[in-house]
């Protein structure tokens, strides 16, 4: 029974995007590969690593120095695709179940500290 639970937890952890472990340089390389070498320094200067990338969206990009609206939309969409999270809907009813679990897990994982460092997706799903 315990072996089956460990295997299930391992499979759940496989769903977590590898980019969470990226360094600032890895994120800068990825931005460059997206076709935006001019923004490499924006990400390295602001120390955006894989866990901080979770917080990057259209509202945070201007604070990083990215103000071209079309570039902002493409970068934000690419971050969501990279993390396999859904696009937030402005018309979502508050009576609906909260956002999908991966997005909520990534939001918690983006924080710093031992608690976030030790948080696993399996543990998050179990409510630990």
UniProtKB/TrEMBL annotation:
CDD domains: SAM_Samd14. InterPro entries: SAM, SAM/pointed_sf. Residues 22-85 form the SAM domain. SUPFAM superfamilies: SAM/Pointed domain. PANTHER family: STERILE ALPHA MOTIF DOMAIN-CONTAINING PROTEIN 15 (PTHR46829). This is Sterile alpha motif domain-containing protein 15-like isoform X1.
């Amino acid at each position: 029974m315990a072996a089956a639970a460990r295997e299930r937890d391992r499979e759940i952890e496989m769903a977590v995007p590898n980019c969470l472990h990226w360094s600032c340089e890895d994120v800068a390389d990825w931005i460059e590969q997206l076709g935006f070498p001019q923004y490499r320094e924006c990400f390295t200067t602001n120390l955006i690593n894989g866990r901080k990338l979770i917080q990057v969206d259209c509202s945070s990009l201007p604070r990083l120095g990215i103000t071209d609206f079309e570039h902002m939309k493409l970068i934000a969409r690419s971050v969501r695709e990279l993390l396999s999270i859904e696009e937030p809907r402005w018309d979502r009813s508050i009576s609906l179940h909260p956002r999908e679990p991966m997005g909520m897990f990534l939001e918690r994982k983006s924080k710093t500290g031992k608690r976030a460092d030790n948080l696993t997706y399996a543990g998050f799903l179990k409510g630990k």
